[in-house]
Amino acid sequence: MANSDLYFTCEICIEPVNINKKFKHNNGNCKDNFCTDCICKYVEANMVQSNNANIKCPVLGCRLPLNPLSCRPILPTHLFDKWCELLCGQTVLQKYELSQRCYCPYPDCSALVLNECGDNPTESTCPNCKRQICFQCKSPWHPGALVVDMLCNESVAAQLSDADVVIDFAMYAEPENRLVAISTSTMKEVSC
Predict the structure, then answer these.
(1) 56: Cα separation from own chain's centroid
(2) Is CATH 3.40.640.10 correct for 1-95?
(3) Where in the chain do CATH 3.30.40.10 domains reside?
(4) pLDDT at 122
(5) Is residue 17 within 8 Å of residue 7, measured between CB atoms?
(6) Which CATH architecture has domain 98-147+179-191?
(7) Which of 73, 139, 146, 153 gets the highest tally of CB atoms within 10 A of its CB?
(8) What does pTM read for this prediction?
(9) Which of 4, 12, 7, 17 is nearest to 32 (CA)?
(10) Please, which residues bridge with residue 180 across strands?
(11) Tell me: the pLDDT tens digits for 43-71?
């Protein structure tokens, strides 16, 4: 084997690199040559600095996507896991419109909750912390079906959004006597 067959020039660092450190693409259309060190740094920079999961070939004229599975053998586990997490997150955000997803309202959780059934749920359970949440108003679960329907209505929420109110529920036995008492307070949020 000739000495020139043992090395290639990385298109990122423009250095001669041993052929054993050449990045192996699974994308048959991309013929660009990179060393594994440069690809690791490039992937990390895209994820850490840009929070970008759709990482393209670094050569300006190419722009074909890098295959995460091609990069897996050369990436640290935490970096590969983060890439997969970002890809999943982007896929979920593209698949589910805003009304079909929310984040758990509990500060110690904040997991993404999806409406995979396509119906119009009110009470839902966070898949992470297992606590009940109101899917309509994106807050911790609150009892009272009639009150939920009224207060979770977008128009009512919009009317109350700028007010300094706390909502107290006074529920009576007869449905026609149900009452919602709204009292002024120093709190800056509206909760159902």
Answers:
(1) 20
(2) no
(3) 1-95
(4) 77
(5) yes
(6) 2-Layer Sandwich (3.30)
(7) 139
(8) 0.54
(9) 12
(10) 169
(11) 999 888 888 888 999 998 888 888 888 89
pLDDT at 123: 81
- How far is 111 from 104, CA to CA, in rounded Å? 5
At residue 35, the pLDDT reads 95
pLDDT for position 165: 35
Buried residues in 72-98 as b, exposed as e (16+ CB within 10 A): eebbeeebbebbeebeeeeeeeeebee
Q: Partners of 184 in the beta sheet?
A: 165
Look at the block and give the residue holding tokens 């020139």.
4
Q: What is the pLDDT, as a whole number, of residue 144?
A: 59
Helix (H, G, I), strand (E, B) or coil at 100: helix
Judge contact between 135 and 102, C-beta under 8 A: yes
Structure tokens at 36: 């594994």
In which residue are the tokens 């722009």 written? 63
Rounded to 5°, the CA angle 140-141-142 comes to: 115
The C-alpha atoms of residue 40 and residue 19 are separated, in whole angstroms, by: 16
The reported pLDDT for the residue numbered 136 is 79
The pLDDT of residue 100 is: 80
Maximum separation of any 2 CA atoms in the chain, in Å: 93
CA–CA separation, 43 and 168 (whole Å): 51
**Which residues of the chain are modeled with pLDDT < 50?**
1, 148, 154-192
